[in-house]
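Sample intake sheet
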Amino acid sequence: MQEGDEMKINRRHYLKISSLAAIAASLSPKLLWGSQASGQTSQPEPTPGVIDWHSHWISPTEIRVLSQRKTAPRIITNDKGQQIIQVPDNATGVGQPFPIFPRNTDLDARIKHLDQSGVSRQVVCITIPLGYDGALSAEEHKVIVSGFNDDLAVYTRKYPNRYIGLAALASSDPEWSARELERTHREYGLISPGQPTLIVPRDTQYARATLATYAQLAAGALTLGMTDFLDAYPDVSVQAIMLGGSLPFVMEQIQLQASNMGLPDPVQRFKRIYLDSGPYSLLPRSVAMTAEVFGADRMLFGSDYAPGADVARAIKMINQAKLGAKERNQILIENGAKLLAAKAVKV
C-alpha cells in the first residue's frame, strides 16, 4: 500500500465504525475520599443486572512486552514473587510502582466477583491509569495495544454476555489506530475510546495529576457536549468517563455565562452524551450533584475496577447517594440496558 492510499482520518471514521465513542483519561488518580455524613444509612443492595461501563485489565501481551524491557516502564518481580510495574518519571498516571494483583489480569476469576456484586455486564479496557505511553516508541506501543485487543477478544468471545471489549489505540499513530479500530470492530466487535494528551506534573504530583486529569476530561466532554461536533452523528452514543471531569462542578458558571450572552441553556446540549461515574462511584455527593445538574437519565455506572479493588463497594456508595429509587435504577441498570439493547450499540 502506498502512503497516499492510507486511510484518511476524520470524525465520521472514528465515530461510525464503533458502536460507542468514549472519552478516556490518561490516569485515574487516587482521590482523597471525604467522610460520609453522620447518620447516613446504607440502602439495600441493587437487584442483579448492574452494568459496569468502566473497568481495566492488564493483558498477557502487555506483561510479556514490559517484562522484556530493561528500563521503565517495565515489570520486575520482587522478593515475594509479586510482579510490579515500574513506571517512568514522566508517566501521567499513578507515578509510583504498581503491584499486579489477580484482579488486574484474571478475567476468568473476575466473573465470580461480578456475580457477587450483582454486575451482569462489564466494559473492559486497557489500564490507562498507568500512563506510561509516552515513554515507549510508537512501534512498541502498537505491539502492546494490538496484542491487548487480540487477548481481550478471547474473553469477549468466551463470555459474550458478560464482557464488552473497549479497543486499545495508540495516539502516537492516528492512522494506524484508525485501521486497528476498524480491524478490532470488524473481527471482534470491540468498541472505541479516545486518547488524551501527555502531561508531566512536577510537584505535589498526586494533586496536580488529579487536577490535570479532570481538566482534560472536562475539556473533551465540553467539546462533545456543546459544539457541533456530534451534530452529524445522531446515531452514535458517546460516553464520557468519570462524570466528564469537573464539568458538573463548573456547569453553574457556564450556565450563568450563557444566560448573560442570551444563549440557550448549555445543559440541554449535554443530553447527547452519557457520563459514567468511574472513581466518583465512591463519592456519593458528586454522583448526586451530577444527577441534579444533568439528569440521572444521562448517567452510567462505572466502577473503575482493577485499579479499584471492589465493584460491590462502588455499588454500595451509589446506593448511599441522595438519589431516588428511580434515579438509582437508571444509573445502575436501566440506562445501560437501553444502550445495549439499541441497534446502534449492539456488539
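Comment: The chain has twelve helices and eleven strands. Confidence is low (pLDDT under 50) at residues 1-44, 194-199, 343-347.
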